[in-house]
Amino acid sequence: MSAAARLNTATPQFIAADVGGTHTRVGLVRAGNGGESTVTVLAHRKYVCADYPSLAAILAEFIASNGVGIDRVVIASAGVVLDDQVINSNLPWRISLSELRRELGLRQVLVINDFQANANAAQCMAPNDSTLLTPGVSESTPGPVLVIGPGTGLGAAVRIPHGKTTVVLPTEAGHTAFAPGNAREVEMLSLAQQRGQTHVPTEYFVSGPGLVNLYSALCTFNGVEPSLRAPAAITEAARRGEAIAREAVLTFCALLGSVIGDLAVISGAKSVFIAGGILPQLKDFVPESEFHARMLDKGAMRPVLERVPVRLIENERLGVIGAASWYLEHGQYEPGQYEQGPQESEPGDGATAPANRQQKTQ
User: Fold this and answer.
1) How does pLDDT run across 74-97, given as a tens digit for each residue?
2) pTM, two decimal places
3) What Gene3D superfamilies does this protein map onto (predicted)?
4) Span 126-313 CATH architecture
5) Among 23, 257, 54, which Cα is nearest to 151's?
6) CB of 108 closer than 8 Å to CB of 41
7) Is the dihedral of CA 66, 67, 73, 79 positive or negative?
8) Per-residue DSSP letter, 331
């Protein structure tokens, strides 16, 4: 029996999925009631992407294990939708929206940018869900909010106040060109180019795999063979005091600060939220690093950036909550009700729309 066939139409539940290159987090959600938060998560599970042949397999297992039927799914994923496909080089498998609809018997499948979801969720987070990374700078003035996170790639979005609501501008900031800030980083850029990277994106160094690339480059500069192949291993070695691993982690933190400063200048952000990724595992290194100094080192813009607080959000349900929040505000339309945005159709015909067209519904 399909998921749609098992739907209890009296229960306004749907599935929100946060699809990353390493993990997919899936939640059974509904709107909050009364004094509850905007979104109530009824069930939640994290899956290792490489353990499954497709996103459909993950969703099917989640539906089966929770004994629920659904006919609507909203997916937060890095990348963009081109025709029927989610374009994202970091995913272990392709995502076809029409195949998801057909295999799971779904009536509605919507895709939004993962950091568009995170930006929607950030405004729902309680203070105890975050850690201040800019001591002495905790209050912000009203204005745009930058949400960024280094995970399998580097994602970012900007939440902009617009009357009584907000507009969320998703970006592909991780694919912008890497900008070195000192001689050592110039050498890192040159080495990446020598290794065949004609375009060296920011996320080549500022992401989970980027930490591995940093460590590898520093090993090359020190004339030693890299012995660590994973971000967690490099982080643990840094905690043990291994010099190259420690330099890699501190350099990573400094680069992240520099990128945040650049994006804050571009967006006019008055506050910044770092949404998970690998930084929760590195947060104890941030005070020792040049994170804040590099963020502020933007010439004439330094006095402006000195007033911008940066917080780390530690809630692994962030993407699920954000996708659900976006859907509850913008996505609950029957086929044909959109002025601009996803063009829905009957299940099985495969009609979908690019994710960036959904921004009109903001």
Assistant:
1) 999 977 788 888 888 778 898 999
2) 0.80
3) 3.30.420.40, 3.40.367.20
4) 3-Layer(aba) Sandwich (3.40)
5) 23
6) no
7) positive
8) I
